[in-house]
Amino acid sequence: MKIKHVLTTLPQYILPHHWLSGLMSKLTHCRVRWFKNAFIKLIIKLYGVNLSEAKSQNLDDYASFNDFLPAN
Question: Do residues 68 and 41 touch, judged by C-beta distance below 8 A?
């Protein structure tokens, strides 16, 4: 098993699920510009998101991380 996979999934096993879910909700709804932009950039880098397919390539155009995600 890759160490990266272990490190990214370990919190799911050791932290209370309700608390972890609440934390992720707060992070994805955060409207603090510097934090929201850094969080989006991290996801872009980790998952290889192609910004040319996004509604806007300017991260300041998104109010929160959730606004960055496409609504299906």
Answer: no
